[in-house]
């Protein structure tokens, strides 16, 4: 059973997929939000192309997949025309004023995102062509994904405030 108080949610069960961790794919041909169901095994149905690079963009505390600065990052990657852009939205688990819950819920967001990452690599995507970009707590989610992967990530870019970590 999840622990819910006020508007805060603290997930007790780490089970993916989870309705409060969502993935959206944007491609140069389909620059609009497409919800990706991790159980759907053929990502090509969403416009995903194996020949392209992949990027996971993960928002931080009190963010969403559609807020700035995340939307700016999405648009920058799409403008290059050679990326499949996956937006990770765990906003229901990371909203204000629930910082302590968000810290706990990062584990679930990381586990579910790692599941999608694994689906990509099983479809033939190379780790060298996949980047995880996280803002604030999203950067921690990128790092925590590795706990759930047998094939480790090649590149993680984390940003907090005006400091960028590579």
From TrEMBL:
It is found in: Secreted. InterPro entries: AB_hydrolase_fold, Lipase, TAG_lipase. GO terms for biological process: lipid catabolic process. Gene3D superfamilies: alpha/beta hydrolase. One of its GO terms (molecular function) is serine hydrolase activity. Keywords: Secreted. It comes from the Eukaryota. Its main location: secreted. PANTHER family: LIPASE, LIPASE MEMBER H-A-LIKE PROTEIN. Belongs to the AB hydrolase superfamily. Lipase family. This is Pancreatic triacylglycerol lipase. It comes from Papilio xuthus (Asian swallowtail butterfly).
């Amino acid at each position: 059973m999840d622990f819910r108080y006020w508007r805060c949610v603290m997930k007790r069960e780490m089970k993916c997929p989870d309705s409060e961790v969502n993935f959206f794919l944007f491609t140069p041909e389909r620059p609009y939000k497409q919800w990706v169901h991790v159980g759907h095994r053929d990502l090509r149905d969403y416009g995903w192309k194996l020949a392209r690079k992949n990027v996971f963009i993960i928002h931080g505390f009190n963010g969403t997949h559609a807020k700035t600065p995340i939307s700016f990052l999405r648009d920058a990657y799409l403008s290059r025309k050679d990326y499949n852009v996956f937006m990770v939205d765990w906003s229901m688990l990371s909203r204000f004023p629930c910082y302590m819950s968000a810290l706990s819920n990062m584990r679930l967001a990381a586990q579910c995102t790692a599941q999608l990452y694994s689906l990509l690599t099983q479809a033939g995507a190379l780790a060298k062509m996949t980047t995880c970009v996280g803002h604030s707590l999203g950067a921690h989610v990128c790092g925590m994904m590795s706990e759930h992967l047998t094939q480790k990530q090649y590149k993680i870019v984390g940003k907090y405030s005006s400091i960028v970590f590579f």
